[in-house]
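Aim 2 progress update. The chain analyzed this quarter is reproduced below.
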Amino acid sequence: MKIIADNVIAKLINSKASLHPEEHLQNFTPVTLEKILFSEKFTVNKWGCAKPLHIGSWKRKLIKSILYFPVVALYKVGYNIGGIYAICRKNEE
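Predicted structure tokens:
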């Protein structure tokens, strides 16, 4: 999927960029991602912020759980620091 760069530095380097979801979703807001997905004929059914993997010692699990709340709070106000997901459906033409 090709996207048009939406920041000044990317525009100076190259006007287009590749979107690699497994690596770079934290660089996009849900609004930007929705525009990209819509341009590729997808409809977003649900947005979310992924929970951390529940692995490790009890201390590590506790820390992950505690740190998850600020991540979700930031996500809800539009600042994504990773873990965003979108459940989409490809529109039939």
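The chain has four helices and four strands. Residues 59 and 77 are 29 Å apart (CA to CA). These observations will guide the mutagenesis experiments scheduled for the next reporting period.
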